[in-house]
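fwd from M.: "can u put these together and see what the complex looks like"

so here's what she sent:
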Amino acid sequence: MSFINYSSREINCKIVYYGPGLCGKTTNLQYIYNKTNPEAKGKMISLATETERTLFFDFLPLSLGEIRGFKTRFHLYTVPGQVFYDASRKLILKGVDGVVYVGDSQMERMEANIESLENLRSNLQEQGYDLDKLPYVVQYNKRDLPNAIPLPELEEALNPTKVPSFEAVAPKGIGVFDTLKAVAKLVLTELRKGG
Amino acid sequence: MIQQLVMYEEELQQINNVCEILHRDSNAKAVLLIDKNGQAMAQAGDTHELDVTSLSSLTAGNVAATGGIASLLAEKEFAGQFLEGEKTSYHVSIVGQRVILVVLFDERSSLGLVRLRVRKAAAELTNILDVMVKKSASGSGQPSVFSEITDDDIDNLFND
């Protein structure tokens, strides 16, 4: 649920990065944080375990600039990917405006990818959302690994609805901003439709 | 789809007034009003040294987690929360089931006083929010600028 403040002329939108454990959701946010001008970002918050696994969420507020005199602010969240944190994932999806699904390109993570995607769809449904109607993009991360599955196979398994998709190597930043821009554009386009 | 909330000048002023009065009457350090998704809506008092954005997001996460616990225990909602610190204490209450009112206070105030003043402010905020929700639904407050956004406007945001 985007929040439009006519008084301070701000649009606030919430984007959630979803995907299986260790697929690189937090790494996406860390890269964005490191490469963004200090004036355009707030503090990045990671609620993580001692071993740096996401426990509840990561949070990064970003300003993208002005559109028709309105400041656009995007709040980026990640969910904890590990299966047993499902209750937390549901909470973070509340009020979402756009979703990035981050898939892990490695062969041995395919089952986890599919499980996470199904989990995303059903958790959204529980909150009254339909993934097919939300601004939604897919990112295939870890494209540099030798055991990465060819792109057409990933597309077939993880992107049946053919939404915009991006290849990525998150620690190096490859595909990270392309993914963010694509989902941000879709969110703003959706806002225009509703306006 | 869940309804979008729109804040117009008139309601913001009313909300700010309620927050200012609450801040003054409860002897608080600061008062924040946050929507349940973690966006700060209004603030009063000594907030310039606070990281309001982070505080809002964490508070919303905290309230969401508490709400999750409530439903596991077959409770509708835990309406309030209080965290006692050595210097600063933190009082949270849910207003009108959609926004979160946070009061930060120190030894100049007390939990009893804060609770008393919050109750009054919450009732007033609920009324203002009801109007806001109706306006957001009908879109009657002002013509939307977003219907005029062009693809170029959106593309221009990303020309870095």
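replying to her w this: Chain A has one domain: 3-194.
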